[in-house]
Amino acid sequence: MIKSEAKIVADIVKVLAKLKKRGEPVWWVKIAGGPWQRAGLPDLCVVYRGQTLFVEVKKSPNVLTLLQIETIRAIRHAGVAAEVVWSVAEFRRVLGV
User: What are the pLDDT digits (tens) for 26-51?
Assistant: First the structure.
């Protein structure tokens, strides 16, 4: 069964909460869309061991919108990591945990 994007995000947040509970230096925020929120932002902003990572979560076979691609490029151009993940396992690999 393919998980929804919301379920993947929730499971990623559980991974982050476990890291925090173990005393790892981690902080995160779920970026919620809305009428006052800039469109195209990734789903999560994660700070882990002093490194910031923006994470866009997709479920297969969904693809990025043009605005999401442009936003990720702009984040990377500013010198910050931005990744797209399709699973919790992929997120763990990107984070190195």
Answer: 999 999 877 888 889 999 999 999 99
DSSP 96: T
Q: Are 89 and 97 in contact (CB under 8 A)?
A: no
Q: What is the distance between the alpha carbons of residues 6 and 12, in angstroms, rounded to a whole number? A: 10
What is the per-residue DSSP string for 19-70? HHHTT--EEEEE----TTSPTT--SEEEEETTEEEEEEE--TT----HHHHH
Provide the token pair at 57: 């979560």
pTM of the model: 0.91
